[in-house]
Amino acid sequence: MTADARPDEGEILQERADRPVLRIGDVVRHPRQPWSGSVHALLAHLAEVGFAEAPRPGPVAEDHDDVGYIEGVSGDAACRLVAGDEAVAQVAQLLRRYHDAVAGWRPATPPTWFDGQTGTGDGGEHLVCHGDVGPWNLVWRDDRLVGLIDWEYATIGTRRTDIAYALHYLVPFRDRAYWQNVLGMARKPRRRHRMAVFAEAYGIPVDDQLVDDVLASQQAGVDLMRTLAEQGRPRQQQLVADGELDREHRAVLWGQGHRHKFQAKRAREGRRLRTDGDVHPGGLR
Q: CA 285 to CA 279: how far, in whole Å?
């Protein structure tokens, strides 16, 4: 995320060919997508029910849409603010508040999302997920989580869809290169402990099913990227060209090869664990 200034256009928040994002005063401007109206309807609902951490929707024009700017630290810098237990708990609590706020949303016009799904869920298990609850989409101010941004991947799923995605990147279910270079952690994370902190703050049990959910989420992310690229979506095609699909596939293999790190102690009894902790049996790091 860059912060170059162009007085005639505004401040560049994201310089991406398919989705340049500008800040113009208190407004963030995105290129309009076919699902922009649905995202804005969701943001309007959240504003109405008092979920303060989502951007406020603005006008939707022929070629762009506007949302309110949330002041604070986000993007790459925000990834380095989630190392502590308190930050993990705040993410879980925010996600729980969001899910509770959206669970009963039933607009008169069923929204259509980026992946072609339509509606807002079944009133039970399924609801509208944020879809991209990574640390880069969090906004922090004075050590307090004040925003969840970039709702372009909102779609229908379950609470655990969002939870698993968040845990993938917060725990993380990834190798040393990620937790050290992206999250800025000085020491190897206590992964099972971070899962437990998140689960307790959200209000769900931390069990081996949750581990399976995260591993499934990793694979689903790879499958979705590949599918959207094959459909001709520019963003996913660029990600594939840049090697992101291969990197995410390696993360899937790492998660599968290190499942024991996240399981309950009883499931690990009698198993020899590697003392270095972060070497995949196949040598991936």
A: 6
